[in-house]
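Why do we care about 3D structure at all? Because function follows from shape, and shape follows, mostly, from sequence. That is the central idea of this module. The next example makes it concrete: a single protein chain, its amino acid sequence, and then its structure expressed as tokens.
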Amino acid sequence: MTTTLPRPAAERPRAAGTGTPRLAAARPAGPRTLLTETGAIVGRRLRRMRRAPGRSIGVVLNPLLSLIMLGYLFRDAITLPMGGDYVEYVFAGGAVQVGLACVGPTAVSLALDLQGGLVDRFRSLPISRSAVPLGHTFADWLVGLAGLAVTALTGLALGWRPHTGWLSVAAGFALIAVFIYAMLWLGVLLALTVRSVETISVVAPFIVVVLPFLSSAFLSPQSMPAALRPLAEWNPVTAVIAACRDLWGNPDTAATGFAGAHPLIVVAVTLTALFAVCTTVSLRRFRTAGS
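And the structure:
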């Protein structure tokens, strides 16, 4: 009786003209199989972040600096047009900044996996094509939620208080959690599009710093130059912030136009469109990544 042993990795069929292993046929993945494979990727990603936490520190550091530098040190120097405590005004901006700060670490991590050949090895295995990006985003989402918890505790220590019922407060934090997850898929798309860690390192600070300052996170759009005011009012970040302030009963700027009067509608449309585009394009590009 003859037993056929699997060929070593060096002898496995390779794509014509390349040194990349041929894409293994992905077995049909049921919900339980996909969950198991995604959980394995999540565990690997969390172990890597525990050994090298540097890139994840920015997820917490950027919002904390905004709350402390602006919300605490300049709380008496900045006057809101409609009155109210500036710490309560700026807290929603710091909370949203957690999601923006997650884009860079996710993009850099996936780009490094692409450059190091790890994605090629995953693609040569008969696993679901969705497991790797899902694992990256779920693991980084846990880090983002931890950063949101630290930001909330810091806000409470600095004087932030919600003035609505606990359901509205929970809904506001749930909205931030959804925003964080949508931003993680933006990071995945950025990595699969650019694939250069150096370029991502240039783009990520722009997302974290510029987008909040071109919104109502720290200043009222009415106080901005006329050319920038429409951009700040229609910025999706402004809509998320306005919705959270309304849910938490915190001071906000005067509602002007459709975007200011209906922030939840703007949030629903923009986040749904962003998530649909990022996930669809990212999963499609991941199937051919490294080929």
